[in-house]
Amino acid sequence: MNATATDEVTAASAAPASSPGLRPVLTKAAGWVVKIFVLLIAVEIISTFLTSDSLQWSTVWEYMFDDRVLTGVWQTIKLTVIAMVLGCLIGLALALMRLSHSVLLNAVAGAYVWVFRGTPLLVQILFWFNLASFLPDLSVGIPFGPEFGSSPTNDLITPLVAATLGLGLNEGAYMSEIFRAGILSVDQGQSEASAALGMTRGQAMRRIILPQAMRVIVPPTGNQVISMLKGTSLVSIISMNELLYTVQVIYSRTFETIPLLVVASIWYLVLTTVLSIGQYFIERHYSRGATRNARPSVAQRLRLTGRAESHDGFFSSPATQPADGRVVDQETK
Amino acid sequence: MTTVTDPVTARTTATRPLVQLEGLCKRYGSLRVLDGIDLEVATGEVVCIIGPSGSGKSTMLRCVNHLEKPDQGLVRVDGEVIGVHQRRGRYVELPASELARQRTDIGMVFQAFNLFGHMTVLENIIEAPVRVAGQPRKEAEARARELLAHVRLEGKENSYPRQLSGGQQQRVAIARALAMRPKVMLFDEPTSALDPETVGEVLSVMKLLADEGLTMLIVTHEIEFARDVADRVIFIDGGRIIEQGPPSAVIEAPQHERTKKFLSRMRGGVEEG
């Protein structure tokens, strides 16, 4: 009720300020035309989806929780996690190499990023899958020296391994830039203070630099995870039984192409939504101490309760209210 | 304002100096930042280093804990050579872990505070005692609270650095350095980044430490503070020590033209501000 009253007051006070001509009325009318137009298009699109015969919603629901589809979803999640972990490890190593003073380490890291960022991911995946035709045997040993063991490449490079290598090594190139930017964003004084207290460089990196770099690292990494999740669909080309390949296998027999692609799309949307929510909480964790005000000011709180809207929340919707409340509790504790 | 009348009398021991700088030289390209600095600091002595900006005073201070590597010359703290060791008649860099161990004896306070932004005040102070010195957390926390009381910041344990004023942050930084029980404390322009109204609270904490007998090397632009607190004032220009002695000599009756010029400029600046 308060909110309505305030709105009325604002509207009333705003009215005399604007010019008395027709312009505001026309602008307002034009605004309504645009809104109605957009609404009509949205309704049209949604109704096409809901009522289309070729879409067969009953088929969609039938396959939504099909065992094969669920296995595909699980494979997609697994592949995303493994490739992302591999990418982060490689990325961190490359970032530290590029930040080191060694010319050799710098050059190697630079070359890695150049190659893996400069060629298409799909080509890299195919390359790893076909590694056997390039290197028939893989061996462990010292270059030009003794060999400790070897094995046929085809036995080692399963679709899962090829997919992991393709996605993970490529991801490493991107993650290295993200880590590097994050580490460089932390003030030089932080490592000097750590050194002066007697910390080793490793301790300073783990305890002081990286935790503060995370604030810069997490948001783009969240985007990378979401890209990776969708990127896993590329490995359907090497018959790795992830989500897309699974539905492809099903619709190649039943010809229910569109419903099954909708099934896959819904699952991708569910997974990316979950990831976005997770990202929000991780970002909040790493923003500790980053802002000066621990708790919202009285004015902010009044606005929160009165208008039930917040701009810094997830999705910027009223649903964030309890979340903001918890932030306050944690920091006062 | 009452002051300690004659702090020099507090010094009686004539044993080995706690900090020794021998012929320190440092160049950046063609610029000689340090041009043969020799200095001995006794236990409990408070030395203020003054000089124009770019004179090398901060570089000299940073050589003491090897944040800056001198091109020539040696630093000794409590008899131990810092940052390098002799191998086959030549001085080479110490392993990183050895240097880290040596640095635990040398506390440092920076112009920009450099508190760890992601940690609370208490976490900032106990980080090195727990992670580096291996103290039990409980013990380190108790000591941290004592130190916070000492720098008059009780009740700020759980604040984050950005929630504190500059003067409060610098006092936390002092407590953090003291938590390692260093033999000597280095202050690199500790009040230069502060608002004028918070300079006093930091200087009074430093004066308290000086009165307690802590050995301190202080690079500062606060001439009045140097006169009140220092046992010895050193004027540096062009990477050399131009003049040194008790404040009554260097500040009240400087002998060298360059010292006189610098001091009159500083005083002028203070009056204008």
UniProtKB/TrEMBL annotation, chain A:
Annotated region (Disordered), positions in chain: 310-333
UniProt topology in membrane: Multi-pass membrane protein
Keywords noted in UniProt: Amino-acid transport, Cell membrane, Membrane, Transmembrane, Transmembrane helix, Transport
InterPro entries noted in UniProt: AA_ABC_transptr_permease_3TM, ArtM/GltK/GlnP/TcyL/YhdX-like, MetI-like, MetI-like_sf
Pfam families assigned: BPD_transp_1
Similarity-based family: Belongs to the binding-protein-dependent transport system permease family.
Native source organism of the sequence: Nocardioides flavescens
One example GO MF annotation: transmembrane transporter activity
Domain ABC transmembrane type-1 per the UniProt entry, residue ranges: 73-279
Gene Ontology CC terms: ATP-binding cassette (ABC) transporter complex
NCBIfam families linked to this entry: HEQRo_perm_3TM
Transmembrane segments: 32-52, 72-96, 103-129, 258-282
Protein name: ABC transporter permease subunit
Compartment(s) where it occurs, according to its Swiss-Prot or TrEMBL record: Cell membrane
GO BP, sorted A to Z: amino acid transport
